Amino acid sequence: MSAVRSLFDWKIRVYYEDTDAGGVVFYANYLKFFERARTEWLRSFGFGQHELAAELGALFVVKNTAVDYIAPARLDDELKLTVAVEKLRNASIEFVQEAWRQPSGDGAGGHQEPLLLARSRITVVCIDAATFRPQAIPDQLLASIKAQS
Asked: Among 20, 68, 76, 128, which one carries the catalytic annotation?
């Protein structure tokens, strides 16, 4: 299928549990943040993960990831996570996702401009919930993704 470009963003706050001993977000937690953003992106089309599996028999699993870490996020930072569909295929979606630190606006040591912290390329594959074999993305979801672009 063709390349599709859709953009979705979702904001989160960095909590103590997200940080390591150095006080910065532990690198693997960016994958959790990106997963949550893709889940909310899916929800924006009216598809929750549970309903997608129960009603349409479809699950999405991560096939591969690549993350470039550019700058650290710290405790209490507000992050904006973006979701862009780079390639939409019959049974897979390739995303480009970014994590941006948002301006704090507090003036004293605050950040006045958004700052790119991490960029990832993540491919997910649609599988049958019963057999765990690859399957086509459900037509209802595919139509929603195409309509957004």
From this structure: 20
How far is it, in rounded angstroms, from Cα 115 to Cα 76? 15
- What is the pTM for the complete model shown? 0.90
pLDDT along the chain (149 residues), means of 10: 71 96 94 97 94 95 98 96 96 97 71 91 97 96 87
Q: What is the pLDDT of residue 148?
A: 82
- Is 76 annotated in the active site? no
SS (H, E, C) the chain: CCCCCCEEEEEEECCHHHECCCCEECCCHHHHHHHHHHHHHHHCCCCCHHHHHHHHCEEEEEEEEEEEECCCCECCCEEEEEEEEEEECCCEEEEEEEEEECCCCCCCCCCCCCEEEEEEEEEEEEEECCCCCECCCCHHHHHHHHHHC
